[in-house]
## 1
Amino acid sequence: MELTGPVDDNDDVENAADLFRVIGRQVRLLRERAGLTQRELGEQVGYSEELIRSLERGRRTPQPEFLDAADERLGAGGLLRAAKEDVARAKARARVKHPTWFRNYAKLEADAVELSFFSSLTVPGLLQTEEYARTTFMARQPLLDEATIEQRVTARLARQEILTRWPSPMVSAVIDESVLRRAVGGYQVRQGQLKHLKHLSHLRSTTIQVLPMACEDHAALEGPFILLAPRGRPQLAYVEVQSVNRLITDTEEVRILAARYGSIRGQTLSPHESLALIEQLLGEA
């Protein structure tokens, strides 16, 4: 019997989510059978413990390279490799649900070859853990309902696939030290976020630098912003604060923000020093 009526986009999203949850459960069972922790499996396949946790929960799209590596490491005998085509089809059919006002930026981000973040309030969304992201959405006022929170967490995690795809964009992030010290979501969430940043700092395409609190002034005291260079298009900027968001295309405005970013980077700790600070914060009780 042929389906002649319209296909609901929600069905595609739910079908993809169901598939990712099934694969996640398979990975968890195979990992436990192999006697490995999430951290140990992550170390063996080049993923962070947080990423493995999210994959096992079905929160992230299992990438082909992960399925290949996990299949080999866990002795799955081709079970996980065989899911690659199903994942690709499900991903193509599903549409990630971003808020309407955010969709233009999300499309440009997905096609970017270079991304630069200055964050003075929270960790950039592209670098957040699942728990950290959920906390930021739960704290919103007016309050968001549970379904919307879960939808937005899933959408945010889905965006992060660009960090591990090939070729990946060149990503640089300048994060204010106060952001790292603030226990958003509590101590355990903060620790998980710091561990995730430590893992990301080892990616060849990602540079994380900390703007120290000892810095008395800098060029972006007006607030956070993002610079992005979509493939084959001029550099753009994006600003979002207090539910006000703006995609900036004016050449002169973008030039000013790019100059500010360059100035800020001159005041940050080096990537090596920034990693040392993150490790120091991780060791604090």
Note: The two ends are 62 Å apart (CA to CA).
## 2
Amino acid sequence: MPNSKRSVLITGCSDGGMGAALAIAFHKAGFHVYATARDPTKMTHLASLGIETLQLDIQSETSISSIANKLPSLDILVNNAGKQFLMPAVDVNIAEAKKLYDLNIWAHLAMIQAFLPLLLKSPNAMIVNQTSVGASAALPFQSIYTSSKAAMAMLSNTLRLELQPFGVKVVDLRTGIVKTNLIKNLQDKSDNMLPKDSIYQPAKEVVEKALRQEGFESQGLSAEQWAEAVVRDLQKTNPPPVIWRGESALLTRVSTVLPFGMFDGFIKKLAGLDVVEHMVRK
């Protein structure tokens, strides 16, 4: 089927994010793009480009079924929506952590179940799940976020096998650092502070700086470059089951085949954990 007639639905397409960048890249490649977000007013730039925007709350069964029943066909589903969560594991509010899992895992599975009937009718069906290099790396203070991505990576790998008999390809998008508004949104939050009884209080300033991801604002591959590379990968006759794109993606991929823990020192320094260790042991 010609690319101009293929369709793709992408979740989490607020302007300035990776979903929006993917929507633009697919649009330029000739796809009919359904860009979705919980708040459609945050997709004004995409709409100005002629991209079809739809309101979709992936945590609402009613919202999901409404869109699934509205689409005439679908070739590619991109589960991109998600949320970041930074906090030392021992200080995590478990109720809030469960909400993150609901969004980063269960909502995506609900999307897959709802749109699978449409995908099964496509000769080029594909499910693309946005995970993270964090699914393969131990990143200090990000255990909840990265474990949710690791769970999604394993779900993707299993679905890849389970859906092969039906001709549906499943791709794990293992993304590295990309320049988006993700860090700004994180820094605008008011819940990136340590609890008063945290064992990390002696190093409060250093840890909270890490929770705000300060110093990472200018790092990463541009969202446009990343998205265009991903869309090229996905258009291959046999796209790889895992796509590694973004800054540090190659390094993380290499680390997965090296002896366990070899990169611990590098990761600790990157997160400031070496300084924290010195301060809490004083």
Note: The first strand starts at residue 7 and ends at 10.
## 3
Amino acid sequence: MAETRPPPCSQGTTIHSLASRLRRLPPSCGPVRLVGVDGHAGSGKSTFAGQLARALGDAPVLHLDNMASHDELFGWTGRLLTQVIEPFRRGETAHYTPYDWRARRFGPPHPLPTAPVVLVEGVGAGRRALRPHLAHLLWMELPHEEAWTRGRQRDGEEQREFWDGWVRAERQHFAEDPSRPFANSLVQQCEKGYEVLPGPGKRVGPDQALTQGDGPSAMC
């Protein structure tokens, strides 16, 4: 399968302009501006979050892979609220227990300090339970089939069985709790860097039901 070249950037906001805008937002979780980076698995969330964190002066990044587990691919909401959100709301350093995917167990507590901006990166970062605590939600604008193909190629044949289960779980998650319709910004990878475009925004309240999926990226 030939690799699709990213399109050239047009007139969207650059990553550095985005960083400046995020710094100016009001805090959303205690003293923290919590920013979600969501999208399909394989869409480039981790790479983008790393670059955005550097543009923000090395902002802390929480990877949701550390909150999930083999038994709870999307059942980590309570753990995240207890270990991260509640301490942040009190203005305290959070301590979460990262999951070791090889050892199949949770490790010792890892500190996550408060900061002007903290990024939460991973599939489900814009889920219904987290949106009230987010200052901004970013969605990686890449169709799910292309994203999953990238992810499978990245992880190799040894992860094929895991990916088969993951795709089923992700489809179900976004069918029940879509993120893209609530994204404040859409992120597209370009030939050189990224382009950040306006998103659908908060047209429906965080606790209201929505019958559509994740827009054009999730047409199954």
Note: The domain at 15-155+177-203 is CATH 3.40.50.300 (Rossmann fold).
## 4
Amino acid sequence: MLPNPKKLLCVEPSSTQQAIVGGMVAQHGLEFVACGGEADALLLLEEQYSLMVVANELADGDSFQLIEAVRLSLETAMLPIAFVTGNEDRSLAKIAMRAGATEVFLRKDLRALNEFIGGYGSARENLAFSGRVLLVEDSDSHAEYVVHLCQVLGLDVDVCKNVKAASARYRPEKYQLVIIDVVLNDIQSGITLVRSIRQNHLNRQPILVMSGYDDLPRRLLALKSGADDFISKPFSPEEFVWRLHKVLRSYAGLDQMRGTPLAGQIVPIMEGQDFMSHLSPREREIAEKILEGLTDKEIARQLAISFWTVRSHIEQIFGKTGALNRRDLMARFIGK
């Protein structure tokens, strides 16, 4: 289930604060839904939303527990969450971030909250994915796990256990996405298949590479060979769904840009341009870490910020630069 770009869920017991957030939501043309506590919010989350605002103190339940529940559900793992508090205690913000909040806002900082709502509510598209995935994975249990996650996004999956079988089955027009494990019970590694697809087929499909070995050389080899993204095993359901959503949305955006440009559409920065000048200081800092080959988790740890905050900034970096993925961002940087 993908997010609905026209609806915001506000979990806030104060009617005054609900009215303030509701006014912001109206400015951005979104539908406003509000409740006061955890139990009602969990019921309302059976519907689709583009983002969520959660107050620190709720009428019932616990705000941190609510945020964790949202992150643990496959259907809402990608939902941006603004945590709002009147308490300036830094430890409270850290707890909210660890629970899975995307950003933390003070009640008095209405402008920042309004920008957050506008950025996520207006920019996100409702892309309902369908089609087939080619999964190359020799572990039956892990293949079953990945198949389930793909089905959450509405994708059917064909599974192959080795490069030979996958090469025989692969057709560019048949698959919307290819997911490849690096280490297979085979002479050939998954990287061989990535290279073969990129060298022998003009039509491009997104390729996500998985590996139980999260080392920098292996990750860079996968990206240089043509993979669009890299995820280390074991991974959480929400991280996997986020990465699939990201690469699929990137290619959907590319297809749109191949046609007639829409009013207000972002024009990608061409290779050789100084794309760093288009980024905020924090975005430049994160972009430099990406170019070093660091994962989202490593970036979050080095900068002492939330994993979800890193993800949010990376989406903004890709949007501003026109890069489809990390590999494309690296190529643009090298081309400077």
Note: The chain has three domains: 7-123, 131-251, 266-334.
